[in-house]
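for the writeup, i need someone to sanity check this before i put it in the appendix. the sequnce is what the collaborator sent (i think, or maybe the updated version? ugh). structure was predicted straight from it, no edits. if anything looks off just tell me and ill rerun, i have time this weekend
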Amino acid sequence: MTAPEHYSVLLEESVAALVNNPSGRYVDGTFGRGGHSRAVLSRLAADGSLMGIDKDPQAIAVAQALAEQDARFSIRHGSFAQLLEWVAPGSLDGVLLDLGVSSPQLDQAERGFSFMNDGPLDMRMDTTRGQSAADWLATADAEDIAFVLKEFGEERFAKRMAGAIVREREVAPIVTTGRLSKIITEANPAWEKGKHPATRAFQGIRIFINSELEDLERVLNAALDALQVGGRLVVISFHSLEDRLVKRFIRNHERGQQLPKGLPVMDKDLNKRLKSLGKAVKAGAQELAENQRSRSAVMRCAEKLA
């Protein structure tokens, strides 16, 4: 079902949670290489439909080929935060979001996401627009770099690493992942067991360059408006920043409006808009054995109430 170069994380679990109406209208907000989309289509009836969204031009090329093969599928190039530009409020039966970077993006050195493969320091999911990581690091001051590494990478040595980046760029421009990885690694005085010393810093820069957390907040709100009552929201996160945001969003809309204690308000008047569907789901032993990248995946699901 999936393209051979990409393993779709929590594939069966996410699609089973998403599709509760074979004739419904669904959105895969992160098409990637189409693993989840193909699995969704396999569960849809002839009158069902699926729209894919992706920032990555390479993903769009794969999606266009799928759209030519299956009339139930269509694709949009852009951010999932733009969801309500493409669908009407209350029109969807389900929205699936598989967050983070896809395996092909990590594995292609020229994309600049990986500290393991030396290549141009780009990190943009959409290579047709925006500022590359190299361009940003060339001009950002140490305070801004440190903020990004700490806030989005949860890197405790952010100031030390930012200082090293600013010093080293005066020697020569930092334009490759290999050089940035070396600078960060040498500036990291306490390596975590089983984790590359540049992992957190690279995560922070990538999240910042692609506005990932801002886009996630926007799409969660857009999805809530786009879903009809009974529609499903399924989100797969890969790090604590994403998962906390998703967990908090579902919890807040499950609780409804928070009012001072003692007010004579009935439960039905609290405007509860979501119902959480079970606990967070993680990859099972078999999937972990087949794909190590699934070890950090957390799936949360909710159903729209109103």
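Residues 1-5 have pLDDT under 50 and may be disordered. The CA atoms of residues 123 and 206 lie 6 Å apart.
thx in advance!!
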